[in-house]
Amino acid sequence: MATIKDSVHDHIEVEGVAAALLDTEPVQRLRHIKQLGTVQLVYPSANHTRFEHSLGVYHLADRALEHLGIDGIQAERLRAAALLHDVGHGPYSHNVEDVTHRHTGKYHDDVHELLDEGTVGAVLRDHDLDPAHIADLVAGDAKYGQLVSGELDVDRMDYLVRDAHHTGVPYGTIDHERLIRELTFVDGELVLAEGNVQTAESLLLARALMNPTVYQHHVARISKAMLRRGAERLLEQPDITPRRLRRMDDHDLLVALRTTPATSEFARRLRTRDLYKRAVWAELEAVPESVVDADYEALRDLETEIADRAGLPAEQVVVDVPDRPSMTESTSRVMVSGEMRRLGKQSPLVSALRTAQKQQWRLGVYVPADETDRAGRLAVETLGLDVDGALVSDVRPGVTATLDEFTES
């Protein structure tokens, strides 16, 4: 057994198959992948890693197993899945996941091949665990997979508290001990026991507050978009394959960007925090549906058109369109008057948070700092934006955003 001091959960005891997995290369690799990717460019102390988070998820899973009375081989499977749930992450966590997914068809939780091979597969088999079954649990399949990946999973409980702790932002603070204590299974569904509507709401509220403050902060979005663009150009090089990119860590990717002539400028800007700036920052209602729902190729065509009109290289214009607002946490299930109900149907808070989420949505167009004014005006025309709902550089005709909201942090 290993006892590890953790910044969030204090001492974590790791034993059994988890202890054996701890020093395998795929798990140790997570020490070199930042949990929040480029968010450190906004919050300098946000340097915690996927390794720390994986230990936290293992710890909370262990607590949940004890509470739920799950033991034996099933408990060992879940402990292994909890520790391994992030080994499929590429460099900078989610920041370049869309890039690798377009080429490989795999997201970070598709780890069947990874768990089946090498030292991880050997350790799992040595403990009479089927790697394919563990990979299914990582993906959230079956009854017990909900504990690792679902609306009430221990993954979410750890990252909200951990991200709040390391950024210094208090909004993600939740009572994860109560959440775990109130978990139960009803008809094969993981739910919160009777009297816990407010407990479920706390998880929902924490995620809703952390999203605009941390995860979707405009500087984090700009740097993420630049990193993504650099990774795309890197894949145009003959010696960089999508599979190789997916298995890089943060340091590997930054070195590859710095040593490749086509991407060295992106590396310099990211390394020195010389980021692109917002030329446009537009509300959802100001953006045509055809742009909101545009696919990757359509957005690249729009970027090229804006760049051509502005006389800029294509790589210096980034159109960043978030997914439509969604709130998966609202599908969490809670027992009310002996019935299993979805939180979205039970809590009036959900409607208010959905409205807030829609109002917080922004399309961004990012360019070098000295090009924001001209490129912003041309982007509004090219994208067909309603100028009353779009902030164009430092020109603010009928803009709903405040000047403070548009200042660079």
Describe, in plain words, how this protein is organized in 3D:
The chain is of the alpha+beta class and 409 residues long. Among the domains are: 2-168, Hypothetical protein af1432, CATH 1.10.3210.10; 276-324 and 361-409, Alpha-Beta Plaits (2-Layer Sandwich), CATH 3.30.70. It has 22 helices and 10 strands. It has helices spanning 16-21, 25-28, 50-68, 72-84, 97-104, 112-116, 118-126, 131-138, 142-145, 154-167, 176-181, 197-215, 218-234, 242-246, 250-259, 264-272, 289-292, 296-310, 343-346, 348-360, 372-383, 403-406; strands at residues 2-6, 10-14, 183-186, 189-192, 277-283, 318-320, 333-336, 339-342, 362-367, 390-392. The protein has a 4-stranded antiparallel beta sheet with strand order 6-9-5-10, with helices on both faces. The chain has a two-stranded antiparallel sheet with strand order 1-2. Strand 3 and strand 4 (189-192) form a beta hairpin. Helix 15 (250-259) packs across helix 16 (264-272). The chain is globular and about 65 Å long. It starts with a strand and ends with a helix.
Helix and strand arrangement:
Layout: E1 2-6, E2 10-14, H1 16-21, H2 25-28, H3 50-68, H4 72-84, H5 97-104, H6 112-116, H7 118-126, H8 131-138, H9 142-145, H10 154-167, H11 176-181, E3 183-186, E4 189-192, H12 197-215, H13 218-234, H14 242-246, H15 250-259, H16 264-272, E5 277-283, H17 289-292, H18 296-310, E6 318-320, E7 333-336, E8 339-342, H19 343-346, H20 348-360, E9 362-367, H21 372-383, E10 390-392, H22 403-406
Helix pairs in contact: 3-4, 3-10, 4-8, 10-12, 12-20, 15-16, 18-21
